[in-house]
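Project standup — Tuesday

K.O.: blocked on the structure for the chain from last sprint. Re-posting the sequence here as requested.
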Amino acid sequence: MDSLDLATTSATEVARAIRDREVSPTEVMQATIERVERVNPAVNALVHKAFDEAMTRAAEADQQVALGRELGPLHGVPTAIKDLFEFKPGWPATLGGIPALRDHTVDATCVWAQRMEAAGAIIIGKTNAPVLGFRGTTDNPLFGPTSTPFDLGRNAGGSSGGAAAAVASGMLPFAEGTDVGGSVRIPAAWCGVVGFKQSWGRVPVVPRPNAFGGTNPFGFEGVLTRSAEDLGTMLAVLSGPDPRDPYARSDRFDDIDAHQRGINGLRVAYSPDFGGFPVEPRVREVVDSAVAALEQAGAVVEQVGTPLPRDQFQIGELWCRLVAPRNLFVLDRLAVDGIDLLAAHRDQLPGQLLRYVDEATRMTVRDFEALQVARTEVFDFVQSFLPRTTCS
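H.V.: unblocked you, prediction finished:
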């Protein structure tokens, strides 16, 4: 363990060290738990800790190594799932820190956990998230806020803020993140880790009882990692068909060395403000430096300045109104199970969320079609310049 700093080592490297018997899964798990106990009180990234279960799994992983069994690509590597719509039997499912759901559980294992455990990863707990994932910061009435580890007291971003903070602070080499409106990308930026929203259908999404519930707007399963190499490994593990997902691609992602290829000649479309959106000067500086780095690496960056068909407020309202029916559906299902949050615990739901959920109860078919028309306008805007900036 002296030569392997788990606080900075990638998941890929931890898995390699375990396969080469430089370190055992139990040693990795013990070191991980010790760091979580030391770091998490200040950051508040993990809100459920299943350490006993994790140590049992690590001991089993030790035996598989000793017996010379075939090992998965993430054998013995610790990780965590997000405390939102991701489940393991017997584990609390507070849907983003709703106090009335403190003891709520779901007798199911989410696809992300299934595939990661099949690859050998060991899930040690759940990470913090905002109520129903409905904000770009991580804070809730049950667990409180999550800080970016680089400046305690500043939020880690959301809604996968707990996952990003756990990875950035060295508690875990990777963790689950989900993204509907920036929930992987925002905390990745705020915590300085790698976040990625892959193409739709690449990783299965299996909402139930509505198999089509992940499309308005699109919801993505993903990860927060420390490196692009890890991202390729995770996509290889998570991708592939699932008969329960009507949109899942039939092929698997196997280009795990894509991060090693150069970008010389790659054409990139770039807009500094989408035709007039306000951008903080410090943010603009960081983005401009990233654009310059792409050009220095050989990419051809073409600036596009056509304004979006709707202003920032209208697009924000569009997203909120699209996601509201999904949240209303979740709340209605809880009411059927005897937990009526809208009737008995409205004070535990954010006012912004309640506004759109209440609107959703009055939404007509015409209203919903109008939302899809507005969504199409934004889609057509993006498609209008992509064909001329795509490699031939």
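K.O.: great, moving the ticket to review. The mean pLDDT is 94. Residues 64 and 71 are 8 Å apart (CA to CA).
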